[in-house]
């Protein structure tokens, strides 16, 4: 990389080639390579995690929609019916059942 | 469960708090209806598409039945993907009940299938039942005759079917709550025979049943009646030979205006069945079944008129 920079930048002063070589050195250093790998892995895991979480949320949501929502609606209706009956009973003066 | 099936030696009467009156035990329920409560909660007749049922009572004894079902039906295939073709069928049926001695029941579908049932009380204790399923396809028709004998604290049944099928079952009340039973069958056409045992324990609050058979089937069920309106059911089914295991859990709400049943099972299948009473003799049905594993979603709605 450094030799290439020197060959290509004949008219250029030494500074950019110098800095690029520093950059290259940095980018070639093991810590950066390791970091890049780690970042790649993290991104992969995060993507997978996100996808599986989404799937789980989807399954949980649809299950909830099928199993629990009708139950809530029907319980509410039953409660309303009971209340209405109680109200009517108290209005008519007859003792409420139960 | 096999250990509980073996009749335990009767405990000395002094050991138990309430002395069991062994000569005055209740009659057990029939062997084939052993899992009745669990089946009622966990196996509603789910359907896909639209259905319309109309029942007309002509007189006290005679009832006519019309039913239309439209929707996709699954056709069995080797591949894992389910193939569905849209179908529509009409079913005509009639029922004759001479209560409580005689019952005649018949259903015929537009594709040529016919179901017929006869139930007849020959004497006070002996009941004769016949069941026939006829189709156009060869070798798919079935016929079955049952003789049930109901004793004071036991029931026995003898079965005779086509394809040289013979079967017998016996169930006996052992204590006030516990009943034990067994069955044997022999299918001559398939050269198979088997033996099975079952136990059932029921109180007012709960019902627990267990059944094992030499075909490798183990079935355990438990139903808890939480209150008058609510019952919770669970079932564990396992086939030792084919290695499939299913556990399911369900609820059953019987409210004033509706009945709602829901279940989840270990195959990733979620189902709910709602019967809503709109008016006297007018019921609205909603059925939903989600199979997350197969990505097979079935929804249905229907109307039941009459009764």
What do these coordinates show?
- The complex is a heterodimer of chains A (98) and B (307).
- In chain A, 86% of the residues lie in helices and 0% in strands.
- Chain A has 98 residues and is mainly alpha-helical.
- Mean pLDDT of chain A is 81; it is low at 1-9.
- Chain A has a domain at 32-90.
- Chain A has helices spanning 2-8, 14-28, 30-67, 69-92.
- Chain B has 307 residues and is mainly beta.
- Chain B has one domain: Porin.
- Chain B has a 19-stranded mixed barrel.
- The longest helix of chain B is centred in the first third of the chain and has 7 residues, at 36-42.
- The A-B interface holds A 59, 62-63, 66-67, 70-71, 74-75, 77-78, 81 and B 251, 253, 255-258, 260, 262, 264, 268, 270-272, 274, 286, 288, 290, 292.
% residues in beta strands of chain B:
over 45%
Could you state the order of secondary-structure elements of chain A as H and E?
HHHH
- Distance N to C terminus of chain B: 42 Å
Sheet bearing the most strands of chain B, described?
A: 19 strands, mixed, barrel
Largest interface: A-B, 12 and 18 residues
Helix vs. strand class of chain A? mainly alpha
Q: Based on the structure, what is the oligomeric state of the protein chains?
A: heterodimer
Query: Considering the protein shown, what is the CATH homologous superfamily of chain B?
Result: Porin
Number of domains of chain B: 1
SSE arrangement of chain B, N to C:
HHEEEEEEEEEEEEEEEEEEE
**Tally of DSSP helical segments of chain B:** 2
How many E-type strands of chain A? 0
What is the overall shape of chain A?
rod-shaped
Please state the CA-atom Rg of chain B, rounded to the nearest Å: 21 Å
Pfam family, one (chain B): Porin_3
Organism (chain B): Phaseolus vulgaris
Main location (chain B): mitochondrion
Family (chain B): Belongs to the Tom40 family.
């Amino acid at each position: 990389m450094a030799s290439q920079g020197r060959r290509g930048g004949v008219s250029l002063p030494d500074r950019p080639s110098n800095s690029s070589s520093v950059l290259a050195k940095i980018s070639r250093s093991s810590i950066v390579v390791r970091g890049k790998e780690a970042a790649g892995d993290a991104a992969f895991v995060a993507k997978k995690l996100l996808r599986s979480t989404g799937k789980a949320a989807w399954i949980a949501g649809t299950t909830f929609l099928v199993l629990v929502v009708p139950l809530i609606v029907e319980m509410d209706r039953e409660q309303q019916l009971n209340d209405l009956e109680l109200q009517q009973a108290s209005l008519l003066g007859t003792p409420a059942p139960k | 469960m096999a250990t509980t099936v073996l009749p335990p030696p009767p405990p000395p009467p002094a050991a138990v708090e309430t002395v069991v009156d062994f000569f005055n035990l209740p009659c057990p329920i029939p062997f084939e209806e052993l899992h009745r409560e669990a089946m009622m909660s966990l196996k509603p007749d789910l359907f896909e598409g639209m259905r319309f049922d109309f029942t007309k009572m002509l007189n006290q004894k005679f009832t006519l039945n019309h039913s239309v079902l439209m929707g996709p039906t699954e056709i069995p295939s080797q591949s894992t993907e389910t193939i569905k073709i849209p179908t529509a069928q009409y079913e005509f049926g009639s029922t004759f009940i001479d209560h409580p001695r005689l019952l005649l029941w018949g259903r015929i579908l537009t594709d040529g299938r016919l179901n017929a049932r006869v139930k007849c009380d020959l004497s006070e204790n002996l009941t004769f039942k016949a069941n026939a399923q006829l189709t156009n396809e060869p070798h798919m028709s079935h016929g079955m005759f049952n003789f049930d004998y109901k004793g004071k604290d036991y029931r026995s049944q003898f079965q005779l079917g086509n394809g040289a099928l013979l079967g017998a079952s016996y169930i006996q009340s052992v204590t006030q709550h516990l009943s034990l039973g067994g069955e044997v069958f022999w299918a001559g056409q398939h050269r198979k025979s088997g033996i099975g045992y079952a136990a059932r324990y029921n109180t007012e609050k709960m019902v627990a049943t267990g059944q094992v058979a030499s075909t490798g089937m183990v079935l355990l069920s438990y139903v808890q009646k939480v209150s008058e309106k609510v019952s919770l059911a669970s079932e564990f089914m396992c086939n030792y030979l084919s290695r499939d295991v299913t556990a399911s859990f369900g609820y059953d709400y019987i409210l004033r205006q509706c009945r709602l049943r829901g279940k989840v099972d270990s195959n990733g299948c979620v189902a709910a069945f709602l019967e809503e009473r709109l008016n006297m003799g007018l019921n609205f049905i909603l059925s939903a079944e989600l199979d997350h594993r197969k990505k097979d979603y079935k929804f249905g709605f229907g109307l039941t008129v009459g009764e």
